[in-house]
Amino acid sequence: MEADYGIARELSDLQKLRSQYQPELPPCLQGTTVRVELGDATTCADPSGEHVISRSFPHTYGQPLAHFLRATAKVADAQIITEHPAKRVGVVFCGRQSPGGHNVIWGIHDALKIHNPNSTLLGFLGGSEGLFAQKTLEITNDILATYKNQGGYDMLGRTKDQIRTSEQVNAAMAACKALKLDALIIIGGVTSNTDAAQLAETFAEEKCQTKVVGVPVTLNGDLKNQFVEANVGFDTICKVNSQLISNMCTDALSAEKYYYFIRLMGRKASHVALECTLQSHPNMVILGEEVAASKLTLFDITNKICDAVQARAEQDKNHGVILLPEGLIESIPEVYALLQEIHGLLTQGVSADKISSQLSPWASALFEFLPPFIKKQLLLHPESDDSAQLSQIETEKLIAHLVETEMNKRLKEGTYKGKKFNAICHFFGYQARGSLPSKFDCDYAYVLGHVCYHILAAGLNGYMATLTNLKNPVNKWRCGAAPITAMMSVKRYGRGPGKASLGKPAVHPATVDLKGKSYELLSQNATKFLLDDVYRNPGPLQFDGPGADAKAVTLCVEDQDYMGRIKKLQEYLDKVRTIVKPGCSQDVLKAALSAMSSVTDILSVMASPSSNVSTPF
Prior knowledge:
Blueprint: H1 13-19, E1 34-41, H2 50-56, E2 64-68, E3 79-81, E4 88-93, H3 101-115, E5 120-124, H4 128-133, E6 136-138, H5 141-144, H6 166-178, E7 183-188, H7 190-205, E8 211-216, H8 234-255, E9 259-264, H9 271-280, E10 284-285, H10 288-294, H11 298-313, E11 320-325, H12 328-331, H13 333-347, H14 352-358, H15 361-369, H16 372-378, H17 395-413, E12 423-428, H18 430-433, H19 439-457, E13 463-468, E14 478-483, E15 492-493, E16 501-502, H20 517-532, H21 553-557, H22 562-579, H23 586-606
Parallel strand pairs: 4-5, 4-7, 7-8, 8-13, 9-11, 9-12, 10-11
Antiparallel strand pairs: 1-2, 1-3, 2-14, 5-6, 13-14, 15-16
Helix pairs in contact: 3-19, 8-9, 9-20, 11-17, 13-15
């Protein structure tokens, strides 16, 4: 099987055309000179976890932000790097495949060769297992030729294994030392980048020369924070799924007798479901974050959907499309608690056929209430991060079953007078993640690869490549890097009275912000989507012409560009220092003190640590 890695692909005419597409670079990445401005030391977003994080990462916490500058930028203390010795760099795919991953490697390779043709890029075969075993493939232009702008991870292969245990970390360090790597670049999501931070810290502590850099690549779209606006693959996944959903909407409208229940990938967060709803306008979406915030039970969710079906029937509409995120099942309070009991028993070695008899009375009652197929799926061993195997739990079939049972009951009681309820279920997961990447993901991934080289040229360790201002054209993107430790938080988990525990520092999945503009847009249109059948079909992925430059709705409506605002704040502070200095007038000094006092009072209140216990989501 290893012999298959990196072999030339058989390409269709469209794939051949896509392989010729050359992504554009922002001005700050063009040429062979690296210009970097290092800002102030970073902190973490939640001050309550700062002590734990700084103690766990003494070598890599509190590092400055890095901004990469265009040639025309006038920044007095910027580092200008013109010498580029040959580098040996390793790259590894971690986690599930996400469209655009190959373009990250292409970008790294091009940047290395542009700055020094003698540099070497080694790809680890088979993900982290290949890293531990030191199985590599040297990346060349010939190998890249049939993988440029293509989907999948098949050039190198992938893994979902973590680089977490001391044995794994030591194996990774041994590989980097044996191969004399100047850098290791880890491509993945929240778990992979948490591991990258730990590797960077360990390497620094052990004085290993290898620098570690992370790249935000995950189809779930949940590696989002003040520094990271989007993840490679999310744009493609949502566009491909939105077309499939829209096709189902058209089919439902044509047949006028089916309700389609569609479960979407995305792990615990509902970003994919939200984005697909805003693109395709199905009748309803149940977000896991809504369920968790309102503590909705299975009964509540069932009744909510049944009431919607009944309202549509009163308008003589006996069809519809309902989206469900795969993480919904863990967001339902009683089901989450049941899963915790099951996983605890599995961890103790209790066999699946004996678990029902060892559950607490209430958990046993819920378990026995559920249909047999769901009971079997809930008994699956949890993932390596202790979460349920969400892709294997057919939540859409469970909800459809409960809704059908309730609608039949209402029909029999005479409270529902519509046609017999008919449900058809789908899981859209694997259909999209091997897709050709969208134009946005091709550009985004390739540029991130170049940013990785700039991070290495600046000698930085434990950083993630970042791009902001993404809703604008490529030539307006801001290129930078942020310490991964600045993205970390420490969760406090409540496990009952007196059982709250402090988690380890980690980059946690970002959930849908129920106070954000994207959710507000959904809320504003929810009634129209439910009753008016305003289905919208974005069509298949476009690479040229109308639609090719379309970006995710959730990316465009949110007001982000954190890195740009940080720079703007620095400019204001510099201007204050210029105006208010020894020798200025009393009036100027008094005005500055008054304004600064007000600002610091407000910011102190806003930045005060939260005492709330984090939810498990």
